[in-house]
Design a protein that fits this description.
With 360 residues, the chain is mostly helical. Helices cover 74% and strands 0% of the residues. Helix 1 crosses helix 9, helix 2 packs across helix 4 and helix 10 packs antiparallel against helix 11.
Length: 360
């Protein structure tokens, strides 16, 4: 009975989130497209910067204020949002010649071509920024830190200052790498708005109801589930493992990465798989906020139609026994097969993680 009630609540929540995404999120994001894209850079930047600033506090003060860490994070997140709102017009003016909408339509409407529509640098910078951040972080942690920052610093504030300097250098290197690779690809004639065989264009005409809006709405639906299950998995890690690691001289971060997370990996992986299954099987949010457009394109600014939404829309109108009716049942079988294979692989991996955790 409780599972049935939970399922009903999930359906109601999905319908409400789809309604809010279609009528509230979509118009706001349409007016603030550059700021919305900047959120993906400014919010993580603000969180990491806030963590470094917290480490700069004296040890005694940090211990006394440890119960205010959540409130401190709650203050840092709005700073990231404000940074995105302020940087949005600047990014649009510098990278897209003042109008991202016209830049997206540059290859389709020749009368809209201009300095922003003709240059592909802006699109490559936005697309390459996350990849460059991952690459720069890996290079600094694997190659530069052991060679140039290997000495242990006893003073907590000096260590935090050193880490803050590394973070600033990594941010500058990420921006430089994104602009350099973007200029290279643009100079070679590649454009993110150009069609890719079998995939479509990475950036194309902007629709109000698109994958970006659905991503925000699905995040509100999925993140609480993943967080709850992951928190339960982390809390079940035996306390003596944490105590032994800290007693051996490991830092709290080293204890979390090398002891707590590997021990709870089976639960964390299960949380991610449950969230993924929730996203794959979602119907109402994508039906109301994705535009219900039957296109095959990787463009996040354009609508689409999922298999579950396609079944919900077209099955009532399909003549029974006809070709269309049979194709819809075939798509339902494909959806079932994908879910079955995904769950089987996920359970196999989870059991392997669980076996490894028992060996610790």
């Amino acid at each position: 009975m409780s599972r049935f009630v939970d399922r009903c609540l999930l359906l109601v929540a999905g319908g409400m989130l789809g309604f809010l995404a279609a009528l509230v999120f979509a118009p706001v994001i349409e007016e603030l497209i550059p700021g919305t894209l900047a959120l993906f850079m400014t919010v993580p930047f603000a969180l990491v910067l806030g963590a470094f600033l917290w480490q700069l506090l004296p040890s005694g003060l940090a211990i006394r204020l440890s119960h205010l860490r959540i409130a401190f994070v709650a203050l840092v997140l709005p700073i990231g949002v404000v940074m995105a709102v302020l940087l949005g017009p600047v990014i649009e003016r510098v990278l897209f010649a003042g109008s991202l909408r016209l830049w997206l339509n540059g290859l389709q409407n020749r009368e809209m071509e201009g300095p922003g529509a003709a240059g592909a640098l802006g699109g490559w910078v936005v697309l390459l920024m996350p990849l460059c951040a991952i690459a720069v972080g890996w290079i600094i942690s694997r190659h530069l830190s052991p060679r140039f920052f290997s000495s242990r610093i006893a003073d907590r504030r000096k260590a935090a200052t050193r880490d803050l300097i590394k973070f600033a250098a990594g941010t500058a290197a990420t921006i430089a790498a994104a602009f350099g690779l973007g200029a290279l690809l643009s100079g070679l004639g590649f454009d993110v708005r150009g069609p890719v065989p079998g995939l479509g264009a990475f950036a194309d005409t902007y629709d109000q109801r698109n994958s970006l809006v659905v991503g925000f709405a699905m995040g509100f639906a999925i993140i609480p589930i993943i967080y709850t299950i992951a928190d339960d998995a982390l809390s079940t890690v035996p306390e003596h493992l944490r105590g032994a690691s800290l007693g051996a001289g490991a830092t709290p971060w080293q204890t979390a990465v090398r002891i707590v997370i590997p021990t709870a990996m089976s639960g964390l992986f299960s949380a991610c798989m449950i969230g993924l299954g929730r996203a794959v099987g979602e119907t109402m949010i994508v039906l109301m906020a994705l535009g219900n457009t039957p296109v095959m394109n990787v463009n996040v600014f354009e609508g689409a139609r999922t298999l579950s939404a396609n079944l919900a829309v077209e099955l009532p109108e399909a003549p029974q026994g006809g070709g269309h009716y049979r194709v819809l049942f075939l798509s339902a079988l494909v959806l079932f097969a994908m879910t079955f294979v995904l769950n089987t692989v996920a359970e196999t991996v989870r059991l392997r993680f669980r076996k490894r955790a028992y060996q610790l």
